[in-house]
Specification:
The protein has a domain at 77-111 and 215-399: Rossmann fold (3-Layer(aba) Sandwich). The longest helix is centred in the middle third of the chain and has 16 residues, at 246-261. The chain has 14 helices and 18 strands. Strands 4-5-16-13-14-15 form a 6-stranded mixed sheet, with helices on both faces. Strands 12-8-9-11-18 form a 5-stranded parallel sheet, with helices on both faces. A 3-stranded antiparallel sheet has the order 2-1-3, with no helix packed on it. With 430 residues, it is of the alpha/beta class. The protein has helices at residues 83-88, 114-124, 140-151, 189-199, 214-220, 222-231, 246-261, 281-287, 298-307, 326-333, 342-356, 362-376, 395-401, 419-429; strands at 10-14, 20-21, 39-43, 77-80, 93-97, 100-101, 106-107, 132-136, 156-161, 169-170, 178-183, 205-207, 237-241, 270-276, 335-340, 386-390, 405-406, 411-413. 53% of the residues are buried.
Amino acid sequence: MSKEFKATEYILESVNTGNQFNDQGWTLDAPNEAEATLIRAIYAKKQIEVKDASHGIYRFSDWLPIHKTLKNSSAPVTYKSEGLAKRIGLNNLYITFSGYWPEKGANFTTGSFKETEAYSVCGRLSSDEKKVLVVASAGNTARAFAHVCSENNIPLLLCVPEDNIDALWFNKPIKDCVKLVVTKSGSDYFDAIHLSNLACQLDNFFTEGGAKNIARRDGMGTTTLSAVNEIGKIPDYYFQAVGSGTGAIAAWEANIRLIADGRFGNNKMKLMVSQNEPFVIMKDAWKADSRAILPMNNDEARKQVETIIAKVLSNRKPPYPIIGGLFDAMKDAGGDVLTATNDELLAAGKLFEELEGNDIHPAAAVATATLIKAVNNGTVGKDDLIMLNITGGGEEKFKRENEITYLKPSHIFDIDPDIETIKNVLDKLF
């Protein structure tokens, strides 16, 4: 932790009412408001001063709700594409890469942009917090939080579906302050969230908060800050694959701050978000012009999740309907929900590696596949300024260069465990 860091100044605001209030340390909701809404950080500094790359993600600390910095972070890196851009016929394609690519200056040792969340969320934590942070994840988020909490001795409980634990790989053993519990094979991310919610009912545990946590969203928003800092202006289009949609909400919020900054233009990037077929619940809702996610049978949902390669894109209860969520972001900024099949994402991932020189995660390959289709069908023009958010990559490269170890679960829970069982297990673990 950096001793000389001065806490970022900000207040909180309800997206729904505009009411402003102070952060009580871990405020996740607007006080005394009946309707569910996201809250937003309003930073004292309207014009961001970006620090040099040695600060890692904290080079964007003016717009992160933190009062400490942690060691070993990395910021997203943006560069102008040559290989992919030329192949698909784009003159202004910028790639924002959050993963492992030291040659480009990207040193996310977990290979995922979820590190941007973890370093920001843990930077918001009070240094004398005694309770255990609880994070539910389909894989990448768990890996990022395990890494950051282990490196910085922060107590953490991870809840992950058992079928996803191969995502919990590291280049060094994870410290004992981090514990992994899983929902048994056949369960999905929705079940892991349910387990985490039950754990948070116990005295010694508190929820990270997901999309409701300003630090999570503003950490993810550094991808957009990286792009605009590099390009010098706000892009026309933003392409990203979405599981919860939180990254796209974060991009929209960063965009709004950048307009208020006054130096980068006043346009809103069209949010071109994508899902992996057949699990396309946000596309279905968006095409039906429905704020609510359309009803879906649990068994059918689990079956679809099993089918998709990009497992991280499988959130069944995304922050799409909530005020200030993805529905509102897309209504305000414009854009569309696009889709890619397993075959299309595999082809796009291969193409990216061949033309740009690094492997990318399946989710990032979904975004790449939908960009290719958007060029081919004329949705975007050859001179449009496009940001492609590569939300994870370099994993294979990292595994080739490092000896890998896996975090083993401390307990396997049934899909719907009772609170007493959870309490007994967690009492032994912490």
